Amino acid sequence: MRKQLRLGIMGGTFDPIHYGHLVAAEEALVQFNLDRVVFMPTGEPVRKTHRLVTPAEHRYLMTVIATASNPDFEVSRLEIDRPGVTYTVDTMLELRTIHGSETELFFITGADAILDILTWKDSQRLADTCTLIAATRPGYDLSRLSQRPESAEFKIELMEVPALAISSTDIRTRIVAKRPVRYLLPEAVATYIRKNRLYEGAA
Ligand code: ATP
Ligand code: MG
Predict the structure, then answer these.
(1) Tell me: the pLDDT tens digits for 142-201?
(2) Which atom number of ligand 1 is nearest to the Cα of residue 164?
(3) Domain ranges within the chain, ordered by starting residue
(4) Per the CATH hierarchy, to which homologous superfamily does domain 6-166 belong?
């Protein structure tokens, strides 16, 4: 019998991708014995309407650059190539179709994003398709998760990651303010940002 594929999915805006994302993905790979992690840049984000999100092609390329040296990481165009609004549950079902119905899916997310996910459209359908791996962020109180009366029955695994206070928002703010971003994200991504003059206008 063919071994069941264990696939990690790291979804995000990746505007830009940074070491927080990469460390969380690597940690999930090892802790949960995943075969590989698929980075899934979002298409037109549903929830980030308060600011302009960088065009998907830039975000996709930065993600490719950041993950290129890791043989267990890959980047998918599924969401950026899908027209219209995208829902994670549709992506999960599509991944099952691509990789086989026996594939086990693990959706990796920051613990802070979990509470949000519980309110998503069709959250029970999402819960049926995958296990959530919640990476803890610095200062996040894990007990908040267990206290929450969940709307959908999610399988949630908690994962400690090294204290990384890195966020894309902070990186964008730093670039506008001409403060350093070195060591927060891969050097090649920082070079790509400079070359394409991303984030210089507004964070
Ligand atoms: P923004 O500041 O624009 O919200 P972000 O840094 O949160 O950006 P996203 O692309 O929104 O990055 O996040 C993608 C996923 O990675 C989310 O599940 C988020 O919780 C998680 N994540 C982001 N930063 C970290 C970090 N430093 N450590 C662990 N997980 C993280
Ligand atoms: Mg975020």
Answers:
(1) 566 654 555 667 888 989 888 678 999 999 999 999 999 999 999 999 999 999 999 998
(2) 27
(3) 6-166
(4) HUPs (3.40.50.620)
Mutate to test the pocket of ligand 1, among 167, 171, 189 (most ligand atoms within 8 A of CB): 167
Sign of the C-alpha dihedral computed for residues 115, 37, 30 and 97 taken in this order = positive
Q: Which ligand is nearest to the CA of 51?
A: 1
Distance 135 CA to ligand 2 centre (A): 12
In the numeric block, the tokens 């086990």 are attached to 104
**Nearest-angstrom CA–CA distance, 53 and 12:** 12
Residues touching ligand 1 (Cβ under 6 Å) are: 12-15, 20-21, 24, 109-110, 112-113, 135, 137, 161, 164, 166-169
